[in-house]
Amino acid sequence: MVLALPPTRLPESAESLRAEVRQFLTEQDFVPGVDTWLSSFDPEFSRRLGERGWLGMTWPKRYGGHERSALERFVVIEELLAAGAPVAAHWVADRQSAPSLLRFGTEGQRQKLVPAIARGECYFAIGMSEPDSGSDLASVRTKATRDGDGWRLDGTKVWTSGAHHCHYMIALCRTGPDRHGGLTQFVVDLAAPGVQIRPIELLTGEHHFNEVVLDNVYVPGDQLLGTEGDGWKQVTSELANERSGPERILSTAQLLIELARYAETARDTRTLATLGGLFAQMWSIRQLSLRVAGALDRGASVEVEAALVKDLGTRFEQEVVDAVRVVLAGNVDPDGRAAALLTHAVLHSPGFTLRGGTTEILGVIVARGLGL
Ligand SMILES: Cc1cc2nc3c(=O)[nH]c(=O)nc-3n(C[C@H](O)[C@H](O)[C@H](O)COP(=O)(O)OP(=O)(O)OC[C@H]3O[C@@H](n4cnc5c(N)ncnc54)[C@H](O)[C@@H]3O)c2cc1C
């Protein structure tokens, strides 16, 4: 049987865009890092991407988008990630919040929020996890109760990446007793009275995570996202966007580049074999991610495939950290760039296979999807 893989070389339009992005990146002033889509928050950089038309690339022009193909978007984000550029400010909004607003939101919500996201000026946090609800997301307890035309929200969200910098959070809340059918999503203004954002420090001492306490927060009725009781269905489709992109493969790309640089000078067979093995793996997972991007663009339901990309991709990212640590140990300047990237990656890598769904949970999703 011949497997129909996407072409190794993308269409000319996508490749010329790649050259444009590379040129743009050489003109920017930033320190390349690892895991930058989660932790390198730079609103000015996001605005510059917005000006270039590299946010909201596939969305309708009437909402500030650019009506380009999923492949073209893939190329742009792949280049930004590979360069270790500071893309965290707009990442969640561009990847999943705006697509959810476009799919489930009201015309008013789309008009108000999506163009600002495409300009790189409006940032969103993910309000799914709670202190007692992570893997078992359907058990969320943050409660939304009707109050006149609007709603009152009470509860605590946790591990909320970047909430202290963001304008809005899409919160999954309980509006009824039914485990799945009693969930609803709301667009919460993070500056609203009653919202408290408390920092949770990472191992590195960085402030990235937060606990977001919602204490009797009033949310106007027109900020309910989609349909009351459809929160579970909506979140599931949002997670396909969250799990399937190249950021699940390329968080450690800068480290892989350091390994390639070292291999070029060292030229020992073991290092070259390690590098070759990692690149081969990366390439095959990338092919899968590319296919899922195309399927998502066509409106297909790809939750299982997305879970597979996330599982394979994040395990690969951790493998890069382990391999680079073994090869570079004692062989690089301890005060140099490679050592700094490695330290950062070692401290961030445990989170790769947790965020967006743990390895075990992804395994369950894939097994169920295969009918096992
Ligand atoms: C870097 C990072 C950023 C994050 N950002 C956000 C964010 O912005 N917004 C947000 O809402 N959340 C965020 N999260 C939270 C993340 O989604 C949760 O950590 C994840 O879903 C796991 O939930 P938990 O931490 O409660 O672990 P638990 O659900 O308590 O799981 C603990 C362990 O038990 C295993 N386990 C649980 N249930 C089962 C089962 N049924 N079968 C087998 N094994 C099981 C898990 O795999 C895991 O190893 C982030 C997490 C990280 C690490």
Describe this structure in words.
- By secondary structure, the chain is α+β, with helices and mostly antiparallel strands.
- It has three domains: 12-122, Butyryl-Coa Dehydrogenase, subunit A, domain 1 (Orthogonal Bundle), CATH 1.10.540.10; 126-230, Beta Barrel (Butyryl-CoA Dehydrogenase, subunit A, domain 2), CATH 2.40.110; 245-369, Butyryl-CoA Dehydrogenase, subunit A, domain 3, CATH 1.20.140.10.
- 48% of the residues lie in helices and 15% in strands.
- It is built from twelve helices and eight strands.
- It has helices at residues 12-26, 36-39, 43-52, 70-82, 88-104, 107-118, 231-244, 253-266, 269-297, 303-328, 337-348, 359-369; strands at 124-127, 143-147, 150-158, 168-174, 183-189, 195-201, 207-219, 224-225.
- The strands form two sheets. A four-stranded mixed sheet has the order 1-4-5-8.
- Strand 4 and strand 5 form a beta hairpin.
- The chain is globular, with a radius of gyration of 21 Å.
- The two termini are 24 Å apart.
- The structure holds flavin-adenine dinucleotide.
- Residues 125-129, 134-135, 159-161, 351, 354-355, 357-358, 360-361 line the site of flavin-adenine dinucleotide.
